Amino acid sequence: QNQLQALLSLVPAGNGDKAQKLALLEKEVCEKLRRRVDNFALRIADRILQLHEDYASGAAILDRVDGKFGEADFELSYANLSDFHNGLEGIIGPPSVHFMKAMEEEHTREHELNREFTTSNYGITTTPKTEWLFVAGTPKQVNEHLTSIGGEWPAETRGLKDDSHRRKYVPLEELIVVVEQELNVKLHAMGEPVLIEAEVAGARLYTGPMFMKYNDVLRNPPPDGVLYVTTLHSINSCIVKKSKLTKATKVYRGMVGASLPSNFL
């Protein structure tokens, strides 16, 4: 109603002829539009100027960042389309068809990578064998191993607010029951493949201290071949299956001491 009254108020008063009123009304409308356009143009010009200043400042920052990363400790690598189509198997080879047996062997056999290590995040000092038994050991294996290492599982030494956030031992059988009830039911209803024992074990291993070992062998494959091949395939398979239950979103990753390769820029 207010807008209608504003429009009607533009019509010249008096009893002049229609042609005269039309000319006066046209002039009034043009004047109002011109003021609006001028105001709008001013706002656009101000925004363009601000973008120009931001860009100039950003370019200077980028120059400094480029110089900083030009002195980085190492250069990241960026795979190509062929690597994408070859998949994980093209990088580390095929997995064993005997998933759990192969994964146990990968974590418990004598190997340079299977020695004691300490995680960089929570300061857990452990071994791949200990982590395998923590995740998938039988009751007998667990009891024997706990006795051999002092009766307690390796625990976090830093990075926690209180003890309630420490990791807890959960037998694999119990974890699988939870997966069946909370994940596999949904996957089955969607007509998607469900998670199997090896995938559940692999995922839990990756969320623990073993993430360091898995990342290391992918970034720097040992000369005698990649260890944890079947484990890595199980983790990958779990992620692919579980992705059906997640919502796509952006993920940002920051790196320290590294520069981007030229084919990424």
Query: Structural class from helices and strands?
Result: mainly alpha
How much is the average pLDDT? 85
Give the % helix.
Answer: 55-70%
For the largest beta-sheet, the strand count, sense and barrel status come to:
2 strands, parallel
Description of the molecule:
The protein has 10 helices and 4 strands; from the N terminus they run ααβααββααααααβ. With 265 residues, the chain is mostly helical. It has 2 domains: 2-69; 79-246, no CATH class. The chain has a two-stranded parallel sheet. Strand 2 and strand 3 form a beta hairpin. The protein starts with a helix and ends in a 6-residue tail after the last strand.
Blueprint (SSEs and pairs):
Layout (H helix, E strand, L loop, with lengths): L1 H7 L9 H52 L4 E2 L5 H12 L6 H10 L8 E2 L6 E2 L1 H9 L2 H10 L23 H18 L7 H10 L4 H9 L9 H14 L15 E2 L6
Parallel strand pairs: 1-4
Antiparallel strand pairs: 2-3
Helix pairs in contact: 4-5, 4-10, 8-10
Supply database-style keywords.
10 helices, 3% strand, 265 residues, two-stranded antiparallel ribbon, mainly alpha
Question: Quick gist of this model?
Answer:
With 265 residues, the protein is mainly α. The chain has helices at 2-8, 18-69, 81-92, 99-108, 128-136, 139-148, 172-189, 197-206, 211-219, 229-242, and strands spanning 74-75, 117-118, 125-126, 258-259.
